[in-house]
């Protein structure tokens, strides 16, 4: 094991302490980025009448992103949100034009703001209604290419700012808002960066309230995407990523690993992408062997987490080493890991139950020279699962 100098525990600001306490209330039921509060009503995205009524409703909440980073009021730790009546006359005109182009599926959408319908939030006091559907409409809007929208978003409160890093998102956004952020970021980033058709290279436009991309090529170009019989539009890319907590065969130790880019002293699990043609179980076996040299079986799929950096779905698993003993580690296959070692289960349980945040949002306890990811991560939830079940 690499010898590390014990990291000094840092007293966190009151906001981060509150953040930590709030997260722990949800330890067994919710997961950061995945605690859903909106009903997406995905079938309404293609209903232009609904979209027009929803986005111009005084009860709607339009939340803003700047280069995929959420704009928040840091004083209240909530999204900056405006509605059609408060967004300003010039910006209302921009919204009106977008509504018309969205209904027509106009090629002019290529120069319109990137907007995505997030869903309806249902409460006992939801005055917006469309047919039998009620709730507060939520929309995500990317401001980076539209100065008047950007100016209005940042001037909404004296403490408006964007949160470009995961650490800042963790600091300010609740479980509920983190899920809305993840949803909005993954759609807006895809819509903003996928400007050309992967089949023919023509310009693409976002249709159905920013949920699909359509190629604008003419029939003569015979685009293989646009002319497909089954799916003639493009949908967001989502990459499945495994993260696996490995136990020794006697289930008394867990494998801790670290990559060179991790914060100082932080250890976690083996992780990697599922490749085409693999089951989850086979991908676990391959990734564990490639990174650590261990052969595993008794694989359990525990839980999952959306991960908006950039567009992943994390699949959390637990696996047990074949044979007797801890298993001999071999980190020389793909050279991804900087270090790995077997940690006693009791030490890991102590980190889960008693860990306090350091300046890098790593959980540490006095007397232990390493830490684990905080409880906004699936990695932490896997440690928690093992602590409770082994």
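Sequence proposed for the structure above (390 residues):
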């Amino acid at each position: 094991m690499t010898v590390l100098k014990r990291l000094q525990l840092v007293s966190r600001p009151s906001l981060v302490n509150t953040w930590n306490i709030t997260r722990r209330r949800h330890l067994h039921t919710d997961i950061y980025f995945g605690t859903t509060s909106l009903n997406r009503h995905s079938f309404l995205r293609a209903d232009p009448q609904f979209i027009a009524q929803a986005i111009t409703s005084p009860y709607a909440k339009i939340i803003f992103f700047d280069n995929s980073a959420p704009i928040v009021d840091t004083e209240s730790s909530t999204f900056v949100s405006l509605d059609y009546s408060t967004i300003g006359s010039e910006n209302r005109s921009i919204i009106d034009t977008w509504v018309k182009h969205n209904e027509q599926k106009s090629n002019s959408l290529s120069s319109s703001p990137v907007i995505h319908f997030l869903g309806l939030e249902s409460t006992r006091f939801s005055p917006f209604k469309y047919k039998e559907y009620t709730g507060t409409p939520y929309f995500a809007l990317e401001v980076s290419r539209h100065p008047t929208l950007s100016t209005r978003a940042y001037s909404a409160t004296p403490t408006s700012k964007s949160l470009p890093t995961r650490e800042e998102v963790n600091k300010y956004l609740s479980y509920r808002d983190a899920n809305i952020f993840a949803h909005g970021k993954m759609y807006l980033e895809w819509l903003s960066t996928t400007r050309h058709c992967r089949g023919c290279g023509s310009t693409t436009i976002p249709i159905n309230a920013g949920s699909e991309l359509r190629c604008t090529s003419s029939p003569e170009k015979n685009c293989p995407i646009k002319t497909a019989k089954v799916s003639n539009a493009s949908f967001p890319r989502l990459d499945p990523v495994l993260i696996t907590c490995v136990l020794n065969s006697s289930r008394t130790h867990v494998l801790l690993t670290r990559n060179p880019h991790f914060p100082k002293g932080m250890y976690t699990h083996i992780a990697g992408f599922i490749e085409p043609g693999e089951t989850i179980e086979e991908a676990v076996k391959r990734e564990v062997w490639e990174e650590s040299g261990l052969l595993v079986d008794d694989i359990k799929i525990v839980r999952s987490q959306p991960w908006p950096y950039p567009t992943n779905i994390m699949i959390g698993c637990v696996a047990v080493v074949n044979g007797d003993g801890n298993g001999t580690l071999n980190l020389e296959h793909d050279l991804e890991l900087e270090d790995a070692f077997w940690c006693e289960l009791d030490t890991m349980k102590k980190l889960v139950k008693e860990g306090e945040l350091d300046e890098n949002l790593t959980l540490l306890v006095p007397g232990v020279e390493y830490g684990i990811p905080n409880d906004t991560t699936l990695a932490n939830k896997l440690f928690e699962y093992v602590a409770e079940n082994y």
